[in-house]
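To whoever picks this up:

The parser on our side crashed when reading a file containing two proteins. I've narrowed it down to the boundary between the first structure block and the second sequence. Both blocks are reproduced below exactly, byte for byte. First block:
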Amino acid sequence: MRLLEYSESGKLNIHSFDDDAIPPYAILSHTWGADGAEVTLADLVQGNNQAGPRYKKIRFCGHQARRDSLQYFWIDTCCIDTTDKAEHSWAIRSMFRWYRSAAKCYVYLSDVSTKKRKAGSMLTESSWEPAFRSSRWFTRGWTLQELLAPTIVEFFSQEGEKLGDKISLMLSIYKITSIPPEVLNGAPLSQFSINERLRWAEGRITKHDEDRAYSLQGILDVELAPMYGEGKAGAFDRLKREIYRLERCIQDMHNTDPRDDKRRIEETKGGLLADSYRWVLDNTTFQQWQQDLHGQLLWVKGDPGKGKTMLLCGIIDELHSALSKTALVAYFFCQATDSRINSATAVLRGLLYMLIIQQPSLAPHVRNKYDRAGKTLFEDANAWVALTEIFLDVLQDPSLSTTYLIIDALDECVTDRMKLLEFVAKQSSASDRVKWVVSSRNWPEIEAQLERAGHKVRLSLELNAESVAAAVEVFIQQKVDQLAQEKQYKAETRHAVLQHLRSNANDTFLWIALVCQDLKTTPKWNVLKKLASFPPGLNSLYKRMINQISESDSAEICRQVLASTAVLYRPVTISELVALVKQLEDLADDLDSVREIIGLCRSFLTLQEDTVYFVHQSAKDFLFAKAVNEVFPDGTEAVHRAMFSKSLAILSGTLHRDMYSLEAPGFHINNVKRPNPDPLSVSRYPCIYWIDHLHDSKPKSCANSVSDPQVVGVVA
């Protein structure tokens, strides 16, 4: 990138900088004069008369930059060699990025004057606003991106007098352009649809017809190499194809939307209570990480149920509130019980997805590989290698905004956890613009890997017991207040519940949530007796819950539901669960009863939008570590075997030619409408995971004793 500079002696110099070494600079936005009226790069190189009127805009920009303590400035007419086709093409594709990266953008309005004029016999001050509203600058195609891309845009008259900026003049600019105030105030353009952004350009003109399309590429988050001569229609056709390819790339990259995961987790846990996490904002370790330019990695660690996930949810919300609109916050919530989000590849895929929907200009790093490989880039055996290369390119991109990357529950990354830990430890020191937050249980193997990170700080919940205890107290108060209001407790009952929770919670949010969930279904006349049955400690509480289920009239069906859900590779809907669990098949038309059964297992399972989840990873861990005999009396292999057999039965019963009655081959997927009911709704899980259940049923060891001909046939 070339930049201009006026020396102390007043000489105009031109400098070239590599992309990773560009200093702060101002940038000029203006309308071009007639051919030959603008100073070109060749004029500067030849050292033509720099005092002439053609240099007026250059002098203005240089002097204004110096007043703003900026040494360098950029002007399109003389910083690009338009005679070099390759450079000209690169400049057009880089223009939006150059304007966005500028410290300030000066809009020079050559048709707006602030001079005093005579009106009749009186000398009056004329308003510049009518001229501002009708300025040619608002009618040109290229100036749209020059208005939208920079953070600071200041408007100046032909005399060089400042008229205001795009914030102070927001209402006038909105009336002129119909561009929403939130856009002018810095809201990411990606928040607005393609059609909305195209409307902002309606009525604008360019010297070359093709520039109508080329000038929109940064605004629409794509890159388009200019091909002058293709005409306006050809340029817009290519632009639309690029938009489609970008949208397709983002769709294929999407495996989960971490924003939805965050909302689901918060809802599952009863909502995010600000007073239960705000203590961290005043924590010395947290402030050290936040303020230290070289403290890149914050590791939040603690035992199960101590509130790590909700603490990170709170940190995410605080970062969104405190940071500038250009800063990026990308996060991912690992969950061991969901195969979609429990691998190292899924973590990088989710973080990249969030980064690119916030800053689409980063998409070319993905497109370089995606355009050749397609969706398999994110899914095949080489996905980890490809994604790490893409991620490194993104982290090193000079245009990357200040970025916060947050990964919750590293201990729940089941597949390739060590690879992820090595990657985080190494890359957390790669860029001063990127800060990392990770959380996990107190596992030595995680500590050993993160110890290799160059710049890190630890925030141990156990070492901040006083702060955690205060947060737990707030959580207890809120939960008891809710219970007392909903169940209409008397004062002495409310006090008894409050005291029991305080005495037995051991600063564990999850224990409190589980006890309060049980009390919700307890008649108020039985609360005091029920309280005494809740032991302190998560495992003790889980043990009590298992015993309670085992002694109930619904013990066997609850056991089947717990065992089946525990071996599933992702959360399933109620309909999928009914299809997979033999004991539930008679309830296919009575899903309310299935919901009641899941409610009986509420200390372990929860329902969100009719999808079954474990309340916490520790609940699933307990079933495998402490309740194997009760939940898996014939071993986990037998449950996998039942799941495999049921999967084959479902597939045999549902899969057949032309399931959606399309009749003719070659139907485009976008034109396919799912029938209601969807014959594939219960087949999706078995289609993918039947082979995993077969593998984990240990078929080689059981082939001789299995009577199911389906299993024997597959094993053989």
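<<boundary where parser fails>>
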Amino acid sequence: MKMSWLRFYLPLHVLMAACLCHSIKAPTTSSQQSFRTDLFNFYHSLILADGKETTVHLMKDIPKRYYFVLEESRVLSPFTITVTPCDVPIEWSILVHKASASSLGKETQGDHDTQEISQSQKAPSMVSTIFNYKGNSVETYMGMSSHSALYMLEFLSTERDTHITVYLTTDTTSGHLYPELPMDPRIDVIGVGHTTVTLTWKHSPSVLQHRESIQYCLLVNEKHNYKSLCAAETAIRSSGMKLPPTLALSLSPYLLEPQQVMILSNSELSIINKVSSGEVRQICMGTKNTYTVPNLSPSTQYYFDVFVVNLLTNASAAYTGTFARTLEEPEPKVTELKDGKVIQVVLDGKKQKSYSLQYQARHKKVQFSFQLCRGQVRVHITKNGKTVASENISGMRYFSLKGKLLDTYLVQLRSTEESNSSVKVQVSPHFHKPLFPLLPESLKIKSFSKLRTCNSVTIAWLGTQEESKYCVYKRRIEEDQVWKELQSSDRCSGPESRHKSEKVLCKYFYDLNLQRAVTAETIKGLDAGTLYLFDVYLFGPSGIPVRYHSKVVKTRKKC
């Protein structure tokens, strides 16, 4: 069966004129009036291309029509129409006009044309709807025809503006635009872990026949399944994401946006889109039909869609989507806290796992002490399951809590940075014996530029009203080491981590008048034009040191 366009144009114009004139001269039956109205609609429709996927844009509540003509054939000839909604459900139908098609196939000349058309109008119009559908699934209509016929496709979106794709073919012997699905197109979940889900599906016949141009792509999200690849693309775009032309052909990083992350490993491509509703992952894995999805969140429901994609035509077919819920994360190991004992906890910033400490009170009053050593840490404390404190800590922090004997306290620590963090923790019932010494208003070290010489510098720092021990250390550093030293230093490390040669002096001092609780030292024996890193350690009654903020000072080059 062939489609004829050139023979159709002229008769349609003549037929339209005749229909309009006839409607003015004499009353007509309702069927004839409907026939002429439909022909008028055809005239203002678009021709649907044969053998090519057409994108159709629909405006809300405004129908759009396409048509095609099939010529008479001695045998039944097949044709197929596939419609793919890319967003909201739509309504679409196929109408056929068999009476009009016979007149369109005739050769006409001059006045004889009008006579033939007038005769054809007297015959009853055979207008019928042969198919209609409402929804957002991919639907294919397969028809057979041996008569000359004019077909009209009408599409309508009642929810909002949207777009669809339409594929018509009258040649069913030259292969398929869309990859074929297996008889059983379901996706099977064969394994579920805390952070992984393993899927398998039956091979597409297209993969077995055209392995080099067909591949599978998997879509993972936390919202719902998608019935087509263009529906998935539309959903991600509506979230504010710009995508490559298709998910399947996102194999080149040239169109990646800042919200996208591309990961290529073991010949598998993963693209992660950061959208408001969570991550949407696209994974193209070639022709493998079993895949383990990694790096999922525990106790989370995910939806999985597999598309078999023809890389040459960019057409795809969707397997029946599935979903699975990852297992709950196992309870973290809990470390028991003991009265007065100090422990240091290192937290993994990349995995974002919390560290748990448990303490059973032997007194009604308890005090938790925290010293941040590195990074940023969030502390969450519960008493018998109820939150009593929760905040990000910096420097040193005390939490004094009251309760009952045998109350159970749970301390959860988590790094708020991607890099590792560490913190020292102590719990004690003795409020009068704090873990850390009494601290001054500021832990900054000040240097005096006017007092610098080629071989000495003068530094000063604040003290307290409590007599305490202060030790000064120095170390020579290079220009390119300054930033690293200041950023990566462990604020909990004490003098025991320093070389003996770095020690300058130790001294005791205090002043009941805080305005005068300041001490200064001149460090001599330095090299000219050289950078030095100075540290001051404060020791309290518990013996645990607190380090002041490091200070970098450069001696004068010339004196």
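After patching the parser it read the second block fine. Residues 362 and 405 are 5 Å apart (CA to CA). The chain has seven helices and 36 strands.
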